[in-house]
Specification:
Layout lengths: L1 E4 L9 H16 L3 E6 L9 H13 L9 E2 L4 H13 L3 E4 L3 H6 L5 E2 L2 E2 L10 H9 L5 E4 L1 H8 L3 E5 L7 E4 L9 E3 L7 H11 L4 E5 L3 H13 L6 E5 L2 E2 L15 H6 L4 H9 L8 E2 L3
Parallel strand pairs: 1-2, 2-3, 8-12, 11-12
Antiparallel strand pairs: 4-7, 5-6, 7-10, 8-9, 13-14
Helix pairs in contact: 7-8
The protein binds glutamic acid.
The site of glutamic acid (GLU) has 7 residues, from loops.
Amino acid sequence: MVTRFAPSPTGRLHIGHGWSALRAMDFARARGGAFRLRIEDIDGTRSRPEHVEGIVEDLRWIGVEWDGEIAFQSARLAHYDAALARLQDMRLLYPCFCTRADIAASASAPHGPEGPIYPGTCRGLSKDQQARRVAAGQTHAWRIDMARAVERAGALRWQASSLECGDTQWVEAKPLLAGDVVLARKDAPASYHLSCTLDDAAMGVTHVLRGDDLRAATDIHRLIQALLDLPSPIYIHHPLLVGPDGRRLAKRDGSIALADLRAQGVDPKRLADDLRHARFPIGISLASA
Ligand code: GLU
């Protein structure tokens, strides 16, 4: 079995990342499996090479050791292109020229588990209309026509398990709730949903451990697996760490960064041991499910 930790290099890691990475590593080690590290570095606007070094340093400091080479998404762009081409051949993708502001301004935009659902503005554009916009220099993303994709894939389920007990249960996937999500962005060669799903399969990941906040994403990943004939791993969504205000820790809030703890002279072995026993620094706790 294989688990992985897949950070995006958009900042230094905080204590919640450290906890998640330790859990994924321990889970694999306890079962004689492998633990891999993947850097999700294809977000050209937010990814920074210096954060990759920082992440590696933070993980090593807290005692996280991965098997094999680090996998970089930036080295796999041809695979994402090939998958997009297959989905295009199935007529499941369409170019979307909308800006974020266009979507936010659409009065009808309902909210799904992942934010506003795309109202479908560009779904009905004719080939001519699309060509005219491209000729006018408008850039576009590629969205999946979710209704069509679901019709093609049929009913889907994914297997869920938990950190505490090895039992698995089937969960019905409801990708329609997310609407026509983006699979290739205007500013990135593939969206998180596509690259993550393809990479988990390519790396032979059998157990995906990640935060509860990505539960709805799993429905979309299951659909992509079905469309592209990829195996479906077992998913373990763990609770997130929250701060004193009850809000999840986020890199942008400067929530207890591992680098800061290190600078304060914290003993990393002791910290890792505390995290493994769910003893967190004052004010930090696990969100209740
Ligand atoms: N790069 C994603 C993140 O940092 C990974 C999510 C996942 O584990 O699938 O949120």
